[in-house]
Amino acid sequence: MTHPSLDVLAIGDAIVDVIATAEDSFLTEEGLPKGSMRLIDAAEAKRLYGRMSQARETSGGSAANTMAGIAAMGGRAGFIGQVAKDQLGEIFAHDIRALGVEYRTPPIATDEPTGRCLILVTPDGQRTMNTFAGASHQLSAKALDAEQIRSAAILYLEAYLWVPDGPRAAMLEAIRIARSAGGKVAVTLSDIACIAKRRDSLLKLIADGSVDLLFANEMEIMALSDESDPDSALAAFADRVPLLVVTCSERGAIALERGRRVAVPAEWVDKVVDTTGAGDLFAAGFLFGQAQGRSLEDSLRLGSLAAAEIISHFGARPEADLRKLVA
C-alpha cells in the first residue's frame, strides 16, 4: 500500500460513557453482578441514570477508547461509529475529534438516540457496565468512507459491534477494502457475551485468513477455543492467526507469533482506582508499538504501561502524558 496517513482506523460502538461511583450495596439493590456488562433498553437506561450519583460524560466505546489512547501517544488514529442527530451525538463527535482522532461518520436521523454506557465504579476499582447501544447498532456499509479505510495501516474491529447484522456487514465490507489496499486487520474479542452469540462467524473469519492480529483476555480466548484452561486455549490458536495477544490481568500479557512466545509482566500500580478502559488502552499501546515498527516485547510493554496508567485514576481517558511513557 502507499504510505498510510493513519496508523490505525477503528470501527466500533459510538457510545457516550457516563461514569459514576457506587457502593457495593447499590449493585446489590439493583441486582447487578460486580464487574459485569449487560445490554439495556432505553427505558432502563433512563431509570438507572436517574439513580446514579454525579457522573462524568465523555466519548466512549471500546474501540473509541483505544483510538483516543493512540492519539494521546502521538499516533495517527481514526474512528468509524454511528451516532444520532441529538445532543449526545454532538458530544461524542466533538469530544473524540478534540482528542485528535479523525472522525468522519455523519450522524443519522433515527428514533434510536445516541448510545450510552452507564458505568458504576465501586471502591475497589471494579466497573459494572450497563450499555444501551442505541444508534451505534445502526451503522451500515453506506456510512463507510472507503478512502479513509484505504488510508490506514491497520483496521481495528471490536466484537461488540460484530453481533448485530447491519454493523457486521459493514465491518466485512471494511475488511475487504482494507485488505485490497494492503492493510492489516486486527480484531478484539471484547467480551464473552459477544463470543457466545457469534462464535461460529468469528471462527470462520479467522479460518478465512481475514485476521492478522487477534486480541483477547484469558476468559475470552478460552470461550472462543472451547478449552477449559488458558494454556490449552493459547495452544489451540497459536497457528490460527499470525499474531495472538492475550492479556492475563495482574500476571501481564502474552504474544504468540508464528511459534514464538513473548511475555511481559504487568506494570506495578500503587492502587487500582477504576479498571474502566484497561483492555482498551492496552490495545492502544500495543497497536501503537506495532505501527511504529517496535518489537513484540516493546509493544507489550507499551500496552502494559498504558493500561497501568488508566487504572490508576477515574475514567477511561489518560491523565498522564502518554508520549512520555512511550519515550
Give your account of this protein's structure.
The protein is an alpha/beta fold. The chain has a single domain, classed as Ribokinase (UDP-N-acetylmuramoyl-L-alanine:D-glutamate ligase, 3-Layer(aba) Sandwich), CATH 3.40.1190. Helix content is 39%, strand content 22%. It contains twelve helices and 14 strands. The strands form two sheets. Strands 6-5-1-9-10-11-12-13-14 form a nine-stranded mixed sheet, sandwiched between helices. It has a five-stranded mixed sheet with strand order 3-8-7-2-4. A hairpin with a 5-residue loop joins β7 and β8. α10 runs antiparallel to α11. The longest helix is centred in the middle third of the chain and has 16 residues. The radius of gyration is 18 Å and the shape is globular. The model has no long low-confidence stretch (mean pLDDT 91).
Can you describe this structure in just a few lines?
This protein has helices at residues 24-30, 42-51, 62-72, 87-98, 146-150, 165-180, 192-207, 218-225, 230-237, 278-291, 296-311, 322-326, and strands at 6-11, 15-21, 37-39, 56-60, 77-80, 102-103, 115-121, 127-132, 152-158, 184-188, 213-217, 243-247, 253-257, 260-264.
Q: Which structural traits does this protein have?
A:
327 residues; alpha/beta; UDP-N-acetylmuramoyl-L-alanine:D-glutamate ligase; five-stranded mixed sheet; 12 helices; 22% strand; globular
